[in-house]
């Protein structure tokens, strides 16, 4: 199955390379930004705050990933499972309060 999938993908890429049009012009070689002309240079650096917010989003997204399975088997875990999850949520809440106080969530 894997060989068939690789073969089909390779065939499609090869056919598009040989049969597709090859018109190179200035507008085609510019970076594409949602059908509009680029506002800024694509080589411009992002602010560190952008990456910080992205990492915080991942941390709290992982929290949601752990909450859903816990909620499904909540009754079978009993008091121990409830206490463990509350400790987990309190640790994440403490982290959120910390980054909030430090101003990491402020977007200027």
Describe the structure in your own words.
It is a single chain. The chain has 108 residues and is an all-alpha fold. The chain has one domain: Up-down Bundle (Methane Monooxygenase Hydroxylase, Chain G, domain 1). Helices cover 70% and strands 0% of the residues. It contains four helices and no strands. Helix 3 runs antiparallel to helix 4.
Quick rundown:
The protein is mainly alpha-helical. The relative contact order is 0.07.
Features:
single chain, 108 residues, mainly alpha, Methane Monooxygenase Hydroxylase, Chain G, domain 1, 4 helices, 70% helix, 0% strand
- Give the H and E element order: HHHH
CATH architecture: Up-down Bundle
Structural class: mainly alpha
Radius of gyration (CA) equals 24 Å
Q: What is the percent of helical residues?
A: over 70%
CATH class: Mainly Alpha
Q: Briefly note the CATH topology name.
A: Methane Monooxygenase Hydroxylase, Chain G, domain 1
Give the CA-CA distance, first to last residue: 51 Å
Question: What is the arithmetic mean of pLDDT?
Answer: 84
E-strand count = 0
> pLDDT below 50 for ≥5 consecutive residues: which ranges?
none
Strand-residue proportion:
under 5%
- If helices are DSSP runs of H or I spanning 4 or more residues, what is the number of helices? 4
| Count of the domains | 1
Any idea what the CATH superfamily is called?
NADH:ubiquinone/plastoquinone oxidoreductase, chain 3
Question: Biggest sheet, open or closed, and with what strands and sense?
Answer: none
Given the C-alpha coordinates, what overall shape results?
flat
